[in-house]
Amino acid sequence: MVCDLGARDDETGCYRPILVVHEWIPGRVGDGESGSLGHDRRCAHVPFPLRPTAPRRVTLPRRHSRQLIRHAAHCPHRHIVLKRLKLTALTRSFEQGDVRIDVLRGVDLTIEAGQMVCLIGASGSGKSTLLRAMNLLEPIDDGAVLLDGDDISEPGRDPTPVRRRIGMVFQSYNLFPHMTAFDNAALAPRRVKGLSKEALRPRIEALFTQFGLKGHMEHYPDQLSGGQQQRVAIVRALVMEPEIMLFDEITSALDPELVGEVLDVLRQLHATGMTMVLATHEMGFARELADHICFLDAGTILEEGPPETLFADPKEERTRAFLARVL
Ligand SMILES: Nc1ncnc2c1ncn2[C@@H]1O[C@H](COP(=O)(O)OP(=O)(O)O)[C@@H](O)[C@H]1O
Ligand SMILES: [Mg+2]
Fold it and tell me: Biggest alpha carbon distance in the chain?
């Protein structure tokens, strides 16, 4: 991974943590000169070796890049800009009889660490397909999905490690009805990571408490409301400690009075610095909290930008027509 450093702060002697990560360069991982980066009066200190490869540029060993990414995701001041997930020229089509449906028609999108990106657009515009392509649930025909610069969409690559790093929650929460909320949340890490229920209990308990589910760990799904079940589904994904979370219209199946409690969970998660991508029809929420909005139309990102621009001053006629219908 190559970073541009910000200016050195004369007062503290450290670099200001303004970094733009360009790409992983696996062949250049090596030992380096010691230094520190990501330190200022407001941010935590992130020490790691530096190896200058050009003025204000360093190559970071991968393990330190991870540390930096974690720091960036939790940095309340968002000085650090890391490109986490990058989609380039994604295409996907389906054959239905003699008809070919182009569902994604060359989508380019960059998602930075700690950002909340919202995908909006009419039903059938390709939002779910795009989200599914991000964690390799949907094969792509062309283009690439880069996770920290690493092409995870290479043919033949095992998708399992990627899906551990990128969690996903769907509209239908699909909890197992014969298992308690706790057992539902513990299932994947028990199977995938071989952890015991007891080892998982503190983490699951903390997540249940954080998301207002404290008294519900031993309840079965049919004893919980839709909003509570969806929050358990979010906890189930978070127990795997993902670095990025994808949410596909997770409030669409809920009664209106239950939508707020699930949006609150997303709000809290965003505040922790989680990198999140949401397909959503909750325009008020997107407008309030998203860092970036993408309007999808017939398999392309027709228009994108910060919410204040996209909602207040859309450039494209089709964006205007869509917003007029939903706002
Ligand atoms: N497995 C599939 N086979 C055929 N067509 C599909 C398949 N999955 C999605 N599509 C089509 O792709 C288009 C986009 O779907 P989707 O990504 O679900 O859009 P959105 O989530 O925005 O509603 C739709 O026209 C849908 O019918
Ligand atoms: Mg969808």
Answer: 68
Cβ < 6 Å from ligand 1: which residues?
94, 96, 101, 103, 121, 123-129, 279
Mean pLDDT of the chain: 80
> Which residue type, as a one-letter code, is found at position 128?
S
Q: What percent of the chain has pLDDT above 70?
A: 75
Which of 113, 28, 14 lies closest to 62, judged by CA?
28
CA 79 to ligand 2 center in whole angstroms? 33
Backbone angles phi, psi at 254, to 5 degrees: -90, 150
* This model's pTM is above 0.85: no
Q: Considering only residues 149 and 226, tell me which one the structure prediction assigns the higher pLDDT.
A: 226
Query: CB neighbours (10 Å) of residue 241?
Result: 12
Sign of the torsion formed by the C-alpha atoms of 128, 86, 290 and 301: negative
Query: Residue 43: its pLDDT value, please?
Result: 33
**Phi and psi torsions of 45, nearest 5°:** -80, 130
Residue 322 Cα, ligand 2 centroid: separation in angstroms? Answer: 16
**Distance from the alpha carbon of residue 221 to the mean position of ligand 2, in angstroms:** 24
Are 68 and 88 within 8 A, CB to CB?
no
| Beta carbons of 167 and 236 less than 8 angstroms apart | no
Give the 3-state secondary structure of residue 78.
coil
Q: Residue 121: phi, psi to the nearest 5?
A: 150, 165
Question: Sign of torsion, CA 47 165 275 310?
Answer: positive
Residue with tokens 């954080």: 210
H-helix or E-strand spanning residue 72? helix 62-74
